[in-house]
Amino acid sequence: MDCFRIEGGRRLAGRVTVDGSKNASLPLMAAALLSDGPVELEGVPDLSDTGNMVRLLEDLGLEVSRTEGGAMRFRTVDPSAIHARYDIVRTMRASICVLGPLLARRGRAIVSMPGGCAFGSRPVDLHLRGLEALGARIRLDGGDIHCEADELVGTTIFLGGPFGSTVLGTANIMSAACVAKGTTVIESAACEPEIADLARLLNSMGARITGAGGPRLVIEGVDRLGPATHRVMPDRIVAGTYAAAVAVTNGDVVIEDFPYDSLLAAVDRFSEIGVRVERQDPTEDSRRCSVRVTCERDLRPSIITTQPHPGFPTDLQAQFMTLLCLARGNSIVTEKIYPERFMHVAELSRMGANLIRQGPTVMVVGGGQLVGAPVMASDLRASAGLVMAGLAARGETIVNRVYHLDRGYVRMEETLNALGASVERVDDKELAAADTMAD
Ligand code: EPU
Prior knowledge:
Bound molecules: uridine-diphosphate-2(N-acetylglucosaminyl) butyric acid
Number of domains: 2
CATH class of the largest domain: Alpha Beta
Oligomer: single chain
């Protein structure tokens, strides 16, 4: 298994471009199931999660190829397949986003029920409630969700849950409602920019969705959806992660294709902490612009509470916690989306961080020096937070199981090294052998 060997203490400098968004790409790819003609997506990042989604869609009868310009092209060749199998779904929870498109286009869907993940149980009850409201009959059998409907009929659906709305649930129901009879209103829809990006694709396929990006979606059903070409939005979490990496090394980096509008909550916290994120050209499109990230000499503490968009994103919580370890003073981080998403806390503590957890809240006692250590994380963003810590730490850090990172960051070590970091990808067996030789 690969791990990262990081030599800390190097200042990041230079220029980096943000890739297309993973969390936008996955439902966009699934939406190709709805189309009568080919769908082309530009800027799908080359990640293990998008690779898994390709595998799943091929299994569901789509042909996936590359255009000359490098876009991913999806075309239905076998519309009879309806089963998203456990061996693929278990590798990627986001497989659930084929449920709505499959049901709507093929009248039936069997999707293996996704299990929990490293940071909680992550139910799909809201997805199922929404589809039932559209007229689907749903039962659970052998760990699979069986969903069928002779016809989907528009209605008003309330999609709020105990932790806010649901992003992939909104994607599923919005996608299915595009071809339902009549009008669907989704109240308390997820406002995440990835939902707005999906609505843009669906509308260019012929759907009639208004309100995307806000909490009330109105979808007038149409008979069918056709071919379209779409450019995936830049990844706001990757952009925020690289900005945090610059900050923990007190660096100076220009980030291109920075989705500024989607990151206002993070930019606000950066500014309070003493990290400047300055737009290079205010006339540029703020959904995809160039920013320069620099830091003040002393970082200040902050209070961060994760919330649904436009609040502070849970997917940047671990990276900001690392940053706050370096601030002078005490910070408070509260997780309101996934109250158990704190696997990085114990690992950061191994590197000398002073963190006190009480339920969904962590007090970060800042001002100490992080010291390199072998660490391990069991999810994508926690791993990113640990890599940030390795960049800031004195000495060598080994971050184990970087396959988590490969799910969401395209060759992260190459990106960081191009900015002056020292991150080496090594096989942990080689590392163990080298250690034995050194003994
Ligand atoms: N929830 C329910 N019932 C449901 C669905 C969700 O109670 O039916 C709860 C969840 O347990 C959670 C909250 O609602 O407490 C929000 O979950 P949501 O459904 O919005 O999450 P998701 O759609 O499964 C996406 C991202 C996650 C990101 C969350 C929140 C993708 C592929 N995944 O998940 O991204 O954390 O939204 O913003 O888009 C990541 O990229 O590292 C990642 C985990």
